[in-house]
TrEMBL record:
Reactions performed catalytically: alpha-D-ribose 1,5-bisphosphate = D-ribulose 1,5-bisphosphate
Protein name (database record): Ribose 1,5-bisphosphate isomerase
GO terms, biological process: L-methionine salvage from methylthioadenosine; pentose catabolic process
Residues reported to bind substrate: R22, G23, A24, A25, R65, N209, K210, K235
Active site: residue positions: C130, D199
EC id: 5.3.1.29
Organism: Halorientalis pallida
Function: Catalyzes the isomerization of ribose 1,5-bisphosphate (R15P) to ribulose 1,5-bisphosphate (RuBP).
Gene Ontology terms for molecular function: ribose 1,5-bisphosphate isomerase activity; S-methyl-5-thioribose-1-phosphate isomerase activity
Amino acid sequence: MDTEVAPAVADIAAEIAAMDIRGAATIADAAAEALAIQAKESDAETAAAFRTEMHAAAGVLYDTRPTAVSLPNTLRFVFQSMDGTTVEGLRQSAVDAAERFQTQLDRAQDDLGEIGANRLRDGDTVMTHCHSTDVLACVEAALDQGKDLSAVVKETRPRNQGHITAEQLREWDVPVTLIVDSAARRYLDDVDHVLVGADSIAADGSVINKIGTSGLAVSARERGVPIMTAAQTIKLHPGTMTGHTVEIEMRDEAEVVDPGDRDEIGDITVENPAFDVTPPRHVDAIVTERGQFPPESIVTLMRELFGETSERPWEAPV
């Protein structure tokens, strides 16, 4: 795409791609902020030129993390609300939509946390995988209710995102046991709940989350440990209602094998999928800011929020 985007938008996109900005809600907030920046800084002289610039900014943002559906849902919200026949009218509607989205986003996580906390009892031990602000919102709300909790935190290779979760829990004085990913099955007998987030949720209730979630869910089901997915509605994937398959992002092999070790190891293929898919039969509940749902009924909520369309209004008309 030839149209240049505002430098700050390019910077935000680069931070999302590099995972310096991570977590679905944080990505969504950053994407909304980037669109507001593009709208404010545009020097377009016509409405058509302004729309072209906004489409270009959205395209740059969308290409950063294809599996994190909160990003296209953010773009969808802003573009469906952007209206006007003049540059100033379009600019104001885009900025207002981005700010309104961010306000709803802030409230959604608090509401979700309160709902998820109700599934946790005083004295429970939870197991977490990766880093999810929605999961942490549930834990924080439970602590605010006066419940004592402890946690078994999977380190979550290859980027060790579980360390971020452990650090936050310790700031809240939650006792934490950090374990390697392959030790999860051993510790499931010691936990009362498995709490995971989601990057996307499909119409059939499948949960797309950090690689390793599916194996953990299977082991938890075998041990009779309930598994809860905490996910704001921005993570519902409306395209899956029309048969769209969620794209699984493949990350750089350097996250797995140090380039300096390649010669020593020999000629191997390295694959580094960022996510996997957990079937709905292995998930007990999906908790959102709109309530908790059995996975199989999430499509009803999806239709209520998005209708039957998988329209992508942020894409420039061909």
